[in-house]
Amino acid sequence: MVNGRLAWYAPGASEEPRWLDEDGVLERLAEAVARQRLAPCFAAPGADVRLLRLQLTPEEKKHIGRSLPFMLEERVAADIEQLHFASAPLDKLELAVALCSADKMR
Predict the structure, then answer these.
(1) In angstroms, what CA-CA distances link 104 with 1, 18, 75, 86?
(2) pLDDT tens digits for 15-50?
């Protein structure tokens, strides 16, 4: 987010950002990611994101894609239906989890 607008930069770009709220830009981003098999990295204002660590059992890990929000339900003070969750492995049985209001993702 730059000056309140969502933006993206192509890998290695030294140019101005491309604004995701402009016509067709989101579609071009999706095409670039698919075509180049990129792993996008997103940045968000720290005040809008909560970071957590989550220990898993091997059984929990098998179903993490569907169960992650419910596993964190008691650790957050918001309705999980109103939150966006993203995770990345830290170790074999530990995840880093970022969550923010789904409204902030629009």
Answers:
(1) 11, 19, 20, 14
(2) 777 888 888 888 888 888 888 777 777 777 788 899
Instruction: Give residues with Cβ within 8 angstroms of 44, minimum separation 6.
Output: 1, 98, 100, 104
Q: Does pLDDT of 106 surpass 80?
A: no
* Integer Cα distance of 21 and 47 in angstroms: 22
**Domains of the chain with bracketed CATH:** 1-43 (no CATH), 46-105 (3.30.420.380)
Mean pLDDT over the full length of the chain = 85
Token digits for 94? Answer: 């530990």
